[in-house]
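During the no-cost extension, the postdoctoral fellow (Dr. R.K.) reprocessed legacy sequence entries with the updated structure-token encoder. One reprocessed record is reproduced below for audit purposes.
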Amino acid sequence: MKLDGIRVLDLSRFLPGPMLTQFMADHGAEVVKIESIDEGEPTRAVGEMRDGVSVFFANTNRGKKSLALDLKKTAALEVVMRLAETADVAVEAFRPGVADRLGVGYRQIAVRAPHIVYASISAFGQNGPYRDVATHDLAIEAMAGNLSITRGRDGAPAIPGLAAADMLSSMMALSGVLMALLRRKDTGRGDYLDISMAECVVASMPNNMGAAMAERRQPDTTQSRSLGGNALYALYETQDAKWIALGGQELKFAVTLLTLMGRPDLIEASKLPPGHAQDELRAFLRQKFSTRTQGDWAAFFKGHDVPFAPVRTLPETLDDPHFRHRNLIVTDARGWDHIGNPITFADEPGHARFDLPAIGQHSREILQRVGYSDAEIAQLAKDGAVRLD
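Re-encoded structure tokens follow.
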């Protein structure tokens, strides 16, 4: 696999860092997850459980090895340093300054491991006025402006179903880590990545920045092309109180759609600017879609070149034959569903390992590999620096 031989030291918790390192694990990297000796990764206790295992934890930590340490112990810090000397990548997602105070920041680790690629993921970055603000995804999206254009039917800001700040920063950090590893082949030097979750959100809205950048004006979501102002890029309720989405604004799609619906006279209306100019077309579509069920409309559009989709529930997505065919949704021998890795290669594809580590399950193995004797390991455990399986 692409990342065979790459070793990752994962000091992160919750979503952005663990997602990044899981993608790497799926493609062959060995990921050593540093957990606290008491509760371990916090997501072990978050959300719904299967056989006592959190689905959240399973979706972000499969195929990793667990080393449980008390980073407040000097002996535990030495363990991290020895591991860093053998690692290629380190990832942390503490609040800015915490890693340095613990003794596992980039500057401290780089002394022992100048080759390491070290990524810090934080809400607003390692410097700047918001550096020390305590927050999570929703508030970050609010500060980045995304919530101001994410509106419910009542016009109020709505909580997105996707943790955009978490996931975008995870993927931006993964891209940066891989770039740095590629560059290291020539220089032999590692690098430091300062990834701001808020900046990743802002950078991901280039298509919705027109009004703000050109006129310093907040876009009106009812008038904006990609935020619901275009009648052919919008959501409509069906007879059975479900929803469908139209996702194509090009003229060719308007011609096909409106001809199928018996209203070719409205094709000209589809050429008008988004917003009130399309009110007649929007009113027709709203009324028309309300006359049949979601299933009826799915059957009606099947085989036609129209960007139409039913608004699926999550269980429906899990059972979708397309995603099953693509191995995005896979079921293990226990009958548990898992989200596969969407980074697919023709050569050396990734492979998800569904084993989940217990807290400290691999502590002894990892310590032995970096030179600790059985007696030294026993002493570390006695001193509370490490938790063994």
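The chain has a mean pLDDT of 95. The chain has two domains: 7-203+332-387, 225-237+243-310. The remaining legacy entries will be reprocessed before the final report is submitted.
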